[in-house]
Recover the amino acids of this structure.
């Protein structure tokens, strides 16, 4: 992160409420019929949306990664369109942002923010929302049946499918990578396209966590070797924890002891656990772009106190921008749990490098 990028990021975040209000005022001026269409509640929802726009823009600028904001734009277009918010309305909102930022940002901070926003506006035409379950892997049938069971609120049927597969000698790591992972991505896509409610999405995720816990007798075997201990956590504010939990389960299968701290863990808490357990490997997860600041905070805190610690990052934000891990100060990154297992296995190998 360059100093100018950091200053721009910090300025936008510090003034996000004032900027959001001015942007919505500008949009309401450009579209006087909005209040008639959406009512007074529509204005408050618009304010909430613009806050998200600004937070995603600020983190993309701060990271020097325009693809972070471009990805958010295409995601937001699909999500809002499924909730009857037109692309035209989103376009007007972004143009209102452009107008306001050209006035409110200090001249020295305008170049990147304006460029990223203009790129996002151009990218509005390329939003996609393709199904997440690929049909080329061997367990696609099991994944489809498992997903359908969850979608009809039948956790017991979903559990029976998985346990039967394990008893039929399907490897647990294959179930995680070819069933749980793509099903969770598809559940997120269905929420994005307004085909699932938040409550339904939460039910599916909670059911998957329950089914994963039923596999623990197969994962936490007393006869497994111990290759070392790894601490894993989701950073402050990050509530999407299932991916990090899946990683820890798969690491346990490979003979690692894991200390999984869960969601929304502060920097000081991560450091305390590393110190108390003498661990020198840390895995951090962040799915949302606007949690990148928290990733930097954890890494800076750990670096200052335990410079020998190897830090690996993962999560959706890092899949969008594959060089982002360097910007936040990590040693490594992994695009998925399987890649993380391979990476961790080689951390003591002198041939392994970032």
């Amino acid at each position: 992160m360059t100093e100018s990028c950091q200053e721009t990021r910090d300025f936008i975040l510090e003034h996000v409420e004032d900027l959001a209000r001015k942007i919505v005022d500008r949009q309401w001026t450009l579209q006087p019929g909005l209040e008639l269409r959406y009512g007074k509640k529509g204005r408050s929802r618009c304010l909430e949306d613009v806050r998200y726009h600004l937070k995603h823009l600020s983190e993309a600028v701060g990271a020097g990664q325009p693809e972070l904001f471009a990805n958010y734009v295409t995601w937001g277009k699909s999500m809002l369109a499924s909730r009857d918010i037109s692309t035209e309305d989103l376009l007007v909102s972004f143009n209102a942002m452009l107008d306001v930022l050209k006035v409110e940002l200090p001249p020295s901070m305008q170049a990147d923010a304006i460029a990223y926003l203009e790129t996002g506006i151009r990218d509005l035409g390329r939003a996609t929302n393709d199904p997440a379950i690929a049909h080329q892997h061997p367990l696609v049938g099991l994944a489809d049946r498992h997903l359908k069971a969850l979608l009809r609120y039948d956790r017991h049927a979903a559990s029976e499918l998985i346990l039967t597969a394990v008893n039929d000698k399907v490897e647990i790591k294959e179930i995680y990578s070819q069933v749980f992972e793509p099903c969770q991505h598809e559940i997120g896509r269905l929420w994005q396209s307004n085909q699932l409610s938040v409550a339904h999405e939460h039910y599916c995720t909670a059911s998957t966590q329950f089914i994963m816990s039923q596999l623990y007798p197969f994962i936490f075997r007393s006869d497994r070797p111990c290759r070392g201990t790894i601490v894993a956590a989701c950073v402050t504010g990050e509530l999407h924890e299932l991916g990090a939990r899946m990683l820890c389960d798969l690491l346990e299968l490979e003979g690692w002891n894991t200390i999984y701290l869960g969601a929304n863990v502060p920097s000081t808490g991560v450091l305390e656990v590393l110190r108390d357990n003498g661990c020198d490997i840390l895995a951090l997860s962040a799915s949302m772009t606007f949690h990148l600041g928290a990733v930097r905070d954890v890494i800076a805190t750990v670096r200052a106190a335990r410079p020998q610690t190897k830090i690996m990052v993962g999560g959706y934000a890092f899949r969008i921008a594959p060089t982002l891990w360097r910007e936040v100060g990590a040693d490594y990154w992994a695009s998925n749990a399987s890649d993380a297992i391979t990476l961790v296995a080689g951390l003591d190998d002198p041939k392994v490098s970032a």
